[in-house]
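Dear U.,

For the methods section draft, I wanted the exact inputs and outputs in one place so we can describe them consistently. I've listed the two proteins in the order they'll appear in the manuscript figures. Please don't edit the C-alpha cell lines directly; just add comments below if something needs changing.

First protein:
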Amino acid sequence: MKTRQLIAAVCSVVLCGGVLAQTPSMDTELASLTEKLATQISDHGKKKVAVIDFADLEGGSQGELGKYIAEQLTVNLVMGKRDFSVLDRANLKKILAEHKLTSEGLVDPENAKKLGQFAGVDALVLGTIIPKGTNISLTAKIITTDTAEIVGAARAEFKADDTVQQLVAKPATQSAAPDGTASLEDDKPKVVKSYGDLRVEMPPLQILNGSHYLLTMTLTNQNPKRSIWVALSTDMGSNVKGAVTDAGGTEFRGEWNSVSGIAFTAYQNGGFFRATEIRPNDSIVATVKFGSYFSRQISPGNCRLQLEFLIGHNFNGSFGAAAEENLVTQIPAN
C-alpha cells in the first residue's frame, strides 16, 4: 500500500512539474524581458532609448509580430519607474522618414549615430525573432548610438499560440509612399490636441486582460525656446480627474498608481505642486491605466475619454502657476 502511495505521489509531482514547466505566454515573457533590458539600460547610464521593430535572422519583416513586440516593450518600459526616457514610436517613424532611414538600417553605426543626433537617443533596443518548433525565441540587444557597441542583451521564449501565429501571418501594415519610403498613415495618432505650447497625441486605447484600458500619450513642447511643466490633475484624494466611458456607459477610472511618465497633483491656489518638465521641442511619453471599480469586462469600440491637464511655464520644485486644460474626445479601443 505504501509503495502504491509513493508511486502516486511521484506521478503527481511529475505531472505538476510538467504543468509548471509549460512555456510562458508572450506577454509574460515580454514583461520579464523588459525588466532585464531596463536594468542594463540604467546600469550603463543611458538617458533616452528607442525600441526598433524586431526582425527575422536576415533582418526581414516578421509580419505584425515584430511591430507588436517593439510596441509592447516600449509601453512596458514607460510604465515602470525608470531613470531614462523612451522615444515614442510614432515620433521615431517620423524621424526615420524625414531623414530617409529605415529601422533595419539602424544596425549600421553611421545610421545609428544619425538617429542619436536627430532624436537625442543614446541607445537602441532591437532584436531578432527565431521560430523554434512550437515556440518563438527572442534575442534582444541594447546598442549605443555613438559607437554601435552592444552594452546589453537578453533572451526570451514563448509559445507560438494562435495570437502569435496570427501576428506572424498578418503582413506589416505600412504601405509604400510615392517617394518609396514607408507610409506613416497607419502609425498616425487617432487623437491630436494642442493647448498652447503643449501638443497631445494619442493612438487607440489598448485593452489589457479584458479588464483595463491603457492610454499612451506623447506630450510635445512646441515652444522652441522655453520649457513647459505639465501634470495630470487629481481630486483631493488619489483619483486622476479623468475617465474612459465605453459605448455601454460603463465608466473606467484612473488612480494615482496607474499613472506613469508624468506627474499628477491636485490643482490648488492657481497652480500645481508636482510637475514634469518638457524641454523645448522635446517630447515625453506618459501612460494611464483605467479600470472599473466593479471589475467590469470591456470590449473594443469607441469610447469617451476625459482628462484634465495642468500646464505652466514656471516651476520652482514645490509650486508653479498653472492653467487647467480639459481634454474631452472620442477615441477607439482595440
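Second protein (the one for the lower panel):
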Amino acid sequence: MKRIISLDELKNYKNGFTLIELIVVMMMIGIISAISIPQFLTAANKAKQKEASSIVASMVKAATMFNTEYGVLPERMGDLSEYGKFQKCVAKDVHIHGSKVCKTGPQEETHPDEINFYSPSGLYFIWFGLRKEETILIVTASPTGLNSFRKSGLGVTGCYNPAKGIAMVKELKEPGDWRVTEPTC
C-alpha cells in the first residue's frame, strides 16, 4: 500500500547533491581529462604526420625513378618534377605562423631550383640533399612554426641509397628527434 506524503513532509525533503558529491564528480572529470587529452593530442599529431610521410615517400620514390633513368641522384626539385608534382605554401610568414597562414594562403608548385620548401599545410619544412661521402639522398620533414606544433609535432625522414638499393621512410616517434635522427640507408 502506498503512503501519501503530506505537504509538510515534502518541504522537509531535500533534493540535490551534497558538496562532497560534487567535489568527487569534479575530481573524476579531472582525472578522466588528464588521461584522455594527451592521448587525443598524440593522435592529432600522428594524423598531421601523415602529410609529411606522404611528401617524403613521394620524393624518395621520385628520386629512385630519377636515379634509375639517369644514373645519378637528383640535386633539386626540378629533377623530381617529371615524376611528381610537389606543392608548397608560399604565404607570408609561414616560417613563423605555420599552418595558420597556409589554410587560406597561396600555394604553388615547387620551383625547379629549390631544395627546401614548406608543405602545403604549412605544418612542415621539407628539405632534401645528398650526403656526398656515401652518395645517399636524405629527405627530412620537420615541424614548423612558432606555435606548440614545432615542439610537439612528429617529424619524418627518408633516404635512398642506390648502391645498396635501399629506400626508406621513417616516421619519428618522439617530438624533436628529427633534429638528430637520420635514417640508416
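Candidate sentences for the figure legend, describing the second protein: The chain has one domain: 50-179. Residues 19-70 form the longest helix (52 residues).

Thanks,
Y.
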